[in-house]
Amino acid sequence: MNSSRSAASAAASASSPGKVFRETLTGILAITEMEVRKLRHDPTELLTRSIQPVLWLVIFGQTFGQVRAFQPEGVSYQAFLTPGILSQSVMFIAIFFGISIIWEKDMGILQKFLAMPVPRLALVLGKALAAGVRALSQVAIIFLLAAFIGIPLRWHFPGLLGAAFVVTLGAVFFATLSMIIAALVKTRERFMGVGQLLTMPLFFASNALYPVSIMPAWLKVVAAVNPLSYMVDFLRGALVTGQLSNWALDVGVLLAAGIISTAVATYLYPQVAG
User: Residue 199: which domain range?
Assistant: First the structure.
C-alpha cells in the first residue's frame, strides 16, 4: 500500500505545474537559441532588410515632410514616420516567419520537432521570440540610421526599454499569425501570396504613414481594429512625442492579440506537417 502511495506521489510530482513550466521554459529558450543561431550564421539578411527602411525614411520621409498636413503634433514628418517604418519592419520580419516552418516541413525537420518531448507551446513561442530578436536587431539598424540622418528621437532609457518590449510583443503576434497562415495554406507559394495580401492592407490601414485625424471615416474604423496601429501609437509616444497616455490600451491590445494568436498557432502547429 505504501509503495502504491509513493508511486502515485512521484507521478503527481513529475507532472506538477512547476515541472511543466520548467520544461516549457527550457524548450522555449532552446528553440529561440536555435533560430537566433541561424541569423548569426547569415547576418546578410539584416543588411538586405535595412534597404527598405532607408528608402522610406530618406526618400519618402523627406519628400512628404514638405506637405503641411503630414506634420502633426508639432514634430517633423521624418520623426513622425520613424515609429511607423519601425513597426512595418517588425511586421514584415515576423509575418513571413511562417515560411520557414513550411520549409522545415518540406525538409522533414518539422516532423522531428513534433516528435521531441517538448510542449507545442514551447515550439511556437520559441520561434515567435526568435522573430522578436530579429525584430530588435532591425530596431538597432533603424535607430542608427535615424541618428545618422539627424531624426530627432527621444533617447531616454525607459522609453527605449518600453519600445523594445512592445516591438517584441508585436513580433510575437505577427510571427504566430504567420504560423497560423502556414498551417492553413501548407505551401510556400500560397503563403507568399496570403502574406503579401495581409501585410500591405495592415500597413496602409494604420497610423504608420499618416495621422488618424486625416483619414476618412471608414479607414479610421479599420485603423482602430488594426493591431499595427497600437504598436505604432506606443512607439510614437515613447520615441517621438513623449505622450504615453494610451500605453495601457496599446500594450493590452497587443498582449491580447498575441495570446489569442499563440493559442491558435499552438493548436494548428502540428497540422503544418499534415
Answer: 2-273
